[in-house]
Design goal:
The protein is α/β, with parallel strands linked by helices. Helix content is 47%, strand content 17%. It contains 8 helices and 9 strands. The structure holds nicotinamide-adenine-dinucleotide (NAD). Nicotinamide-adenine-dinucleotide (NAD) binds next to helix 1 and helix 6.
Length: 256
Amino acid sequence: MSRLQEKVAIVTGAADGIGLAISQAFAREGAVTVMADINEDKCKLESDLINQKGGETLPIKCSVGITSEMEDLVNAVVERYGRIDVLVNNAAIALARNIGEMTEEEWDKLMNINLKSVFRGMKLAVPHFVKQRSGSVITISSVQASRSWNDWTAYAGAKGAIMSMTNQLAGQFGEYNIRFNTISPGAIMTPMNERRIAEEGEEFLRKSIDQSALKRMGKAEEVAMTAVFLASDESAFITGEDIRVDGGLCTLPRYM
Ligand SMILES: NC(=O)c1ccc[n+]([C@@H]2O[C@H](COP(=O)([O-])OP(=O)(O)OC[C@H]3O[C@@H](n4cnc5c(N)ncnc54)[C@H](O)[C@@H]3O)[C@@H](O)[C@H]2O)c1
């Protein structure tokens, strides 16, 4: 279990769901993992649990929606460890609104946390990667970027933009051995979807299961193992790529 030995990684939105699973998997594989989240208590609790099992993690309170907090995060990591090898832009919020009803405030809030956050993370980490002549940026997109669900225009727009940014930067910074990739999860059982099941009922759960070819929801750990691969040297010749972890959702027609 040493696929990420000697690597220093930052994971945003690390206190729960996919970000937590990525942090746990990174720590198991030997990475020093900096866990950033707005939920300070849960982040510290989960970090302690990982460390008790022999992992090395550091919890840092940080909102990806606030530039100064992202600057403090990256500076703290460089000061403490002297380098960053992997940046996982994972934190995001889910907000569905009919396009005719969505307010500009809602649009701006979603874009700030789901999209501008990715700009902040990349802007701050890339200069360090350039100096090191290495780095892996993994950004969590979504199958929403390429499939249609009613009322998810803003969320899907942000996820699609992330994929375009990834493609642009992969081309520009490849000569510095910096890799940019995205992961597009399908329906994964995390607190984000547990909240939707609570709000929308069992019908949402049934639809989420039916729409995947494998007829189940995905586990956060299954997304995490793809992040381990993209963070590791096993994927050294992969950049500008999107890997779907969707149980075959995108192979099925929309009316499923
Ligand atoms: N769950 C799914 O089915 C699914 C599908 C496709 C894509 N995704 C994407 O995967 C990523 C993780 O989703 P999840 O389901 O684990 O979400 P989640 O809501 O279960 O967990 C999100 C975590 O991010 C933290 N967070 C929220 N806002 C933050 C902020 N401003 N700054 C820092 N941390 C913040 C939360 O405190 C929480 O710990 C997101 O980018 C999401 O869009 C999820």
